[in-house]
Structures are given as structure tokens and as C-alpha cells.
């Protein structure tokens, strides 16, 4: 019995049209990355398990795809362990490799492993798939691409400014206008914790504040009280509940609010520097806005935090994000390497562009010219022209069989091939080609040189 | 304790320079594929195990990387089965996905699954990594790329001719001259079996003949006798032991030898058609040669068989191969779909180009312009120029920190950045930029517009 073909949940096949559209996004991002001085690296699809495990929290460990050891992998496994049926513990004995979960940890591993070959500050980009055993839903897949740019070995704020410009440049080139680049700084969140008087309430506070959109100031206050944040503390940070206005107005409010916190004030100064510089330089199509609720892996970032949302009206989670981490490579033994980076979510950007019909200029991967095949003698004559056309980079093909004319024309129509060349014995005699321009139906006899001109 | 970073055996990191060189090969192959009318598809990195298992023989099944099921995967596994420690059987219970082993089986699965969306004949190409748990050695990796082009839904010989041209076009564009495209036809091998009088000796015969280079005619005769091939049969195929001369001479010998076999004669005719047509059309840099010892997965191919070897003097296995298979998709339920395809081995081609120093024209991914960073005021002034340069696609960057001049110049030197722009207070005053041309050491003061001209 033949198998009914299918693919694993959360994975996708990509048709020629989809590949072309995806490559359009990839090459747009790649060109901007390179224009900004980033260099590409690639890392293996799977890493040693110890490189990945424990780097993404318990949830991450669970979602990492593990690869079974090869050969008779059960041979040396302890029988009592097997009998226990403890999946977690057995995994360590039968699997020593795992699929890449993101690009940041492999990058950190790369930097440490190749530190002697790298010229710092190292500006690298990486565009590769990652895999997560997550529950699939709209915009969430088990195999998806990340496109990351990071700078490691510099603490400067200029790179943080450049990432705002870079986001703007990519989305503008994709004609995806009206994106919002949200910006925050971990130091501001830390400053708020200081103001509250309890540093250990930072996460509770941030989680509550993050719900402002949904539950309003009253709801947030209630949740904060429930988490044990004092009334006086909440009173102090009231301005954040009504945090509106221009970026400058927000900065001024934050400055007042965090006046008593050295770290918080540093955060406001850093943020102001980025905002002011961008205001002077201008952006092409994105909006830059301060969002103090933005945390994204709070335990990870130490300075700037970025997140990009799609234009209003498009239902989609974030299409990009990133931030600064002061100890990217410490876990692999290289201390004091500050890094800052951003990521583009290729698959979500694809869905947004599709929804907004922004793929109209993408050149689909189809030939420009089809040579009809009437038989070996005619095909041989066509082949001479085909060689010339291809030498001149004209995408062209000969129908591989001498099928009925109708079938061949049907193929040309379905694939929307703009030029069809027809060669019979009379053309061969005259050393000419009859070319049909499919859009108009117009036909003309021409020499090989003329054919080359028409189809180029 | 920090982990000492490493990557799994048989996998590789790619540095910016390596990525650039690899992309040069990828884009050369991609351009030729598209010029020949092929369209790209992509399939998931992992497939359901039943899609892959049993398709590559026992050896293949062993070398396929299996992915462990997620969650508490041992929960439902039979305890007696676990206690048996039968790795092969347990695998079926704890793993239902596996990493792609080649591109042909996923392509066959794709064709059947999407048959209603596909216009046949379907000319597709695919350039993706595959994974094999093979023992790593020179030119053999556990993660490597295949670049395949196939036509499915046509039995015509013209496509077989085009693949010879396509190989020649790719290697010529890569300046890899002197490759040998070896060509055979399964029907000729079947004809030989008929001549020998024992069809079941075909594989023994081919395996022995394949050793002609190493053990000579005498050794081959000895091995054939040992395998039970009769003396009179060996007598009959003597010409193959001294199979030299031009392709035309070989064709004539084969015609005589296989005169009594209908299938063999068909094979000679097919081969002659391809050879004759290529002789008329000509090749740019490759040699096309008939090789009757060429079998490559004998049980698989049914018509043309291709293999490409690197130029003489380069020690490397085949750098490409392929052939015709008359029942590509039958295993997934779609009968009578003839396909013919070829593959390029990216990683081996890379090694060959490296050995022959053929990467000299590859543009490395480095910026053209570095702006030295003397402080925020100077950097802000530089940033205005940077925005303009990047708008004009000039790869350029600002050193992210205001480090010592010497350190920044050292960075520019190490990365071989051709233009360094220096801006101090006097430049800001005059609204000028000082640009240093690194190769000559020459320095000049210029306006933003002049800078744009110089660096473009």
C-alpha cells in the first residue's frame, strides 16, 4: 500500500512562489545588514546538548528537539534507569545532540570558540532556521527562520541607535510602512524597582504594568496590591499608568520619576540619547516610541530593549525584537563581552506582507521563454537559440517532449510564460523563429538576434 | 564552571569569509538553474519517519538521524519492549520524525502531496542541507548541502541533454574547467546482462567492471569467474575491458556488442542521441565521456546515469551525479511519473575550488567605509554621512565606541576596509570629511557629495 504523504505538524512545504517571496524578504534583510557593516556566519543545525540545555529556562529545555544517538544507543543505558521510565533522565543517556533553538546561544558559543580569529567589535548577522516543539498556531511554527544582527565587544550607544535605523530601513524597503519600534531600557525598569523600594518585586511590577492596555489603571493597581506592592510605591509610579504624550514628554516624566535612582537616571539618559539622535536623523517610515512596559526576557537584557509591532490593523505578535546583554558569552567562559542585537521574524513578516498585498513587485521564478517542441529536428534547431538566450541570462526552456501543441500552449499559459517560440520546418528552412507574445497574442518571425532583443 | 565550547562531530561553523564563498557557489548554481527554467521549492528539515525509512536501504535507515518525541515520551512505551533494549524496535516507539537524508525522497513526497497544484512537466530545484550519521572524512560531513534539479513528468531525452549542458554551464561559471561528465545508461547495463545470459549477475558484473582501473582486465576476469559468470560470457564482453577511444568509437563498439539485445540497443541509441547532440552544440569547459562502469545506485536509475568528477589532479570523490528514475513517486501513490535529475555536492565543490584557488573574485562581506569615532559630537556628524552612504548601498559603519585612534585604525587594517573617514572639530566646522584611502595612505578633505563619489 502506498503511504499517504504528509509532513510533521508545525512544518511547511514552500512552493516556488512562496520560496520567491521568502527570498525577497531574506535578500532585503541581508542587503541592509551588509550595508550596515554586518558579516554573515553560519552554525550547525544541531549543537551538543550541553550547549543548549539550561540556557532557555525549563520551558525552553522542554521545547528543544533532541536527536537520538545513532547505532545501538540502548546498549549501554542503565536498566534501572530505563525501567524508571523517567523520560527526562533517560533523554540524557540516549541523546547528546539537539536542534538549534535560537541563534543567540549558538552565536555566543561561536564567539568563544573562535575568539582568536575574530576582530572585535564583531558585527555578525545570521539567517538560519530554528526549531521549537511548541504548539503550532497562527504565526508560530515548529521550524521557522530567525534573522539576527548582533554586535559583540562594544558598550557604545551608537550601535543602539543604528539598530533603530536598521529596523526602519528594512521595513521601509519592504514597503511595510507604519511599523512601531518600541524602545525601553532595563536600567529604567531597575530604577522603578528602586523607587518601589523592593527590587525583588520588579518582575511582578512589570508583568502587571504590561497589562495596562487590557485591564486599565485600576486593574493594574489591584494586581500590584495583590502581589504585595505597597500603596505608597504604587502612588509613586502613578505617572506610568497614564504614560502618554510624545517621547520627549515621556522622557521628562521618567526623569522626574526616577530622579532619586542613579541607575534609573542613567537609563533615562541612555534612552534620551537614542531618542534625540533619531529625532535629528529622522526615520523613513517607522514610528519610534518609548514603552516602559516592554521587558522581553527581563533576566536577559541589561540595557536597551527593542520590539517591533506590525502596522495597526494587522493581527500579529511582534515581528522583531532584541536588546543589550552585558554577559553574552560568560556562560562559555569569555567574560565581560557586552553585546547588543536585534532579530527579524521572517515567517511573521511574510504573513504581514501577504495580508497587506506587499509582494506585488516580487519576480516569480518562471521562465521568460518557452520553445515549443515539435520533434527532434525542430528541437535541435531550437536548442541553438536556447544556448544563446541562456548565455545572455534569459530564463528559457524547451518543452521536454514533442507533445500536442495544445498541451504545450496550455503549459505556457498556466505558468504565465510571456514569450513562446514556435519552430516548424518552414522556420528551419528560413533560419527564423516565430515568437508569440502571449499577452497580446501577436506573432512575428524573427532572426536569432532579433529574438534575443525581444526577450531581453 | 564554564563549558568549553565545541560542536558535534562532522558539523562545521562557517566564518564570514566561508559563508561568502559558499554563497558564491550557491548563487552560481541557482542562477543557472533558473536560466534553465527550474523553479525552487523547499521542504521541512524533518519528515515523518515513515516518509524516509525504508527508502535508502538498511544502511540508509541506520544513517538517518531520528528526532526524539517531545514531552514524556516514555510514558506509553511497552515495558517489555524497553527491557529488551532492542534499539531498532524501541526507536519506532519513541521517535516519529527524522532529519532529511537527501532531497529526492522529500521531493517525491512533495510532488504527490501537491500534485493538484503542480503544472507538469515540473522542473524544480532545491538547495537545502541534508544530514547523515556517517563517519566523517575528507569531503564527507554529517550536515552538508545538496543542490538538486529534477524534471518530473517527462520521458524526453532533451532534458537529459540539457543536464549535460547545465553541469557544463555551472562549472564553467565557477571557472572550474576540465571537469569530466561521465555518462551511462541503465539500458546498456541491462543489455550487457542479457548478453551474459544471466540477468541476476548484472550487479556482480558491474561491481567487477568498476574495478578495471585498479585491478586491470585480468583481475576483473578473475573476479567475474569467481562470481560464477561463465567464460563464454566474459569472452563476449571482452571489448569492455579495453574500452577506449572517442565517444563515437565507444558507441560503435557498444552497438556491435549489444546488437542482439533490444533493450541494450535502445540504450545505445539513447546515449548516441545525447552524445551526438552535445557534439553539435558543444560544451564550454567540461569533457563528456561514456563510462559503462558507471552505475550509482543501480536499482534506482532506469535510463541516463550521470556523474561528474573534479579536474585531474584533484583528489575528491564525485562532485555531482544523477540519472533517470521511471517510478519516482510510486512509493507515495502516484504511478508512472518518470523523472530525471542531477545533484551538485556543494561542500565538495567548495573544497575543490579552495584547492585550485578559484575563489579570488569572490567579494568578501566587509564594509567599504569605516567612520572613526572621536566622541558623540563627531559621531553625530559622521552619522549624517553614514545615512547617505547607506541609502546609496555603500557598505559602511561607524566604529561603535570612541576608542583610541590607534585601536580603530588597527580594526580598519585587520578587516581590510578600503576607506577610513576621520572627522574632528575642524572638519565639523568646515562641514567636510577627511577620507583616507588605506591602500595608498593618501588623505583628502571632501564634501559629503564628494565622499559619496569616492566611495562608490
Describe the protein's architecture and organization.
The structure is a homodimer of 456-residue chains. Chain A is α+β, with helices and mostly antiparallel strands and 456 residues long. Chain A folds into three domains: 8-174 and 310-365, Bira Bifunctional Protein, Domain 2 (BirA Bifunctional Protein, domain 2, 2-Layer Sandwich); 180-296, no CATH class; 369-455, Anticodon-binding domain (Rossmann fold), CATH 3.40.50. Chain A is built from 18 helices and 16 strands. The first copy, chain A, has helices spanning 16-35, 49-52, 57-63, 79-84, 87-94, 104-113, 158-173, 186-196, 202-209, 212-226, 231-236, 247-257, 262-281, 346-355, 376-391, 405-414, 425-430, 448-455, and strands at residues 39-40, 46-48, 66-67, 97-99, 122-131, 143-152, 180-185, 287-290, 304-309, 320-325, 339-345, 369-371, 396-398, 419-422, 433-437, 443-446. In chain A, the strands form three sheets. The first copy, chain A, has an eight-stranded mixed beta sheet. A five-stranded mixed beta sheet of chain A has the order 13-12-14-15-16. In chain A, α1 packs antiparallel against α7 (158-173). The longest helix of chain A is centred in the first third of the chain and has 20 residues, at 16-35. The radius of gyration of chain A is 29 Å and the shape is globular. The two termini of chain A are 49 Å apart. The model of chain A has no long low-confidence stretch (mean pLDDT 94).
